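Q: Start with the shorter request: fold the first protein.
A: Done. Sequence, then structure:
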Amino acid sequence: MTGRARRLALAALALALAAAAAVGCRGASEAPERPAPATIRVAVIGGMIETGLWAAVAERYERLTGHKVELAASGPKHQVVAAFRRGGIDLITVHASDAMVNLVADGLARDPQPWARNDLVIVGPAADPAGVRGARDAVAALGKIIAAKAPLLVHASLGADGVLHDLREEGRLVLDREATLLFSEDNQHKVLERAAAAGAYTMVGRIPFLSKKLFAPGIELMVAGDPRLRRPYLVEVAATAGPAARDLAAFLRQREVQALLATFGKGKYDDQPLFFPVVVPEFVPE
């Protein structure tokens, strides 16, 4: 290499090093920033409020970002969705349902994402005529209930009808027409009362049943712990929501919250957490 070529090569190397240093400095000082502090008004399903989960999540988010998370509505799904429809709320989270899909279809919300799950249990009469008490395989238990021609109460509360459909599909099970009781009430208290009156098996939420928020004489826990009994919660942001609400929605699916879900309330009623994480790229539960 000639002297002139060597000098040109050294000059090019110096320029490259200077450019790399500049990029490095800029990358350190110009890391992506969260939106400026804002108040995010939220509508949250009642169970997350009652268990303390939402308070734990909101406190972590406020501490991390400086945003304020303000609870604007809570309660049963229909109340929370109705409040969101009236406007003035930035973010909503309830169970996956037609009501949540319709918020998006009607242009009121966007970007539905699953971020947590809870689960149902199979309960039934203390006499347990199908002999399923203590089972953890919901498909096998349902098959035994059908084979025993024991009364089975089918209802839509908490999406139990959808869970039942999936269990039947997996097990290729056909309900006994005479033993199947259809119940149109979307209220778990009334569901349990009807099951008790009929001496029937049915499905209700695990946490309200174990905490005795749901209770009916003669109805006891039969089947719990099968992941196929779980149902997802969705988070959606209002179509008019600002960047802070979108940031909170994204936070719910990040590692910190997913790790919290995997342990929150574990051991309070049984060996399971109160809620369950979902599989997202940032967090894969064991």
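Q: Next, the second protein, separately.
A: Sequence, then structure:
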Amino acid sequence: MTSPAPKVTVIIATYNKSSALSHAIDSVLWQTFADFELWVIGDACTDDTEKIVTAYEDPRVFWHNLPRNSGYQSAPNNEGLRRARGEYIAYLNHDDLWLPNHLEVLVDRIEDSGADFAFSILEVVQPNGHSRVEIPDYPHAPLPPHASATLHCRHVVDDIGYWKQPSETHLFPRVEYFRRAEILAKRFVLAPMLTVLMIYDVDSGIDYSEATLQPAFMAEIRTDPDFAHKRLARSLAKAHQELDRPVTSQRLRIQMQRSVQRAFVRRGHSAERLSFWIKRGRRISAWQSRHGLLSGGQQ
């Protein structure tokens, strides 16, 4: 007998990072919104990922390993989309964390608004202590939200298709996918709450396969009911202090770049055109090289 379809399908694309993956899965299983299925899709994992995933005695958790490594999360995400039974799709990168109210917040927001996409506030945290929050500004966002902060209706896939492979886009497939939806008039709405921590260890010198900040953050979230409020207050204070500092050339460059990107999107064009000189797939190859994953790996 087939079980009833869940409200949400959660997709985690992963490649040989089981130490961090276990924390990502835990952050899904502690959600206050429990009507979901979780598909962990391996990009031809060769470590103990399968053992880690199948050890969970939760009927909502499913595992599938692709036979061939693709080098990015597009192929695993697309496999998850083909297997999805939920009315909504949520993504979680294998080294990121959801706060316990993430799904509840996004499902409430997308149903209240009638939008195609809902996204929450995401904080990027690094091992060196630096952090920043990301809040894309719609209706013409210069940059779309990160996958881990996004939930969308299942029908979006029928309307716009699947994620492109790295070789098919000048930038990251995540950016291209959400930008494609925006250009095709899909509506994005913000759920104004911090519900995601993106663990960013690029160029930190830490081995790709290692968990970094996940254990400490999981422990803090479990024990501090005011965790999200404190993190947002810290970010707000930092942003306020930044207003009084001298304007730097870097800030001006970023503001000018985003103004041009916004103008492109407002006219229904992909801002990817601004990087026409970049060979398709080059950004992903550079990322793989920095992580010692010349033959493939996930972002």
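Q: Describe the second briefly.
A: The chain has ten helices and nine strands. The chain has one domain: 8-290.
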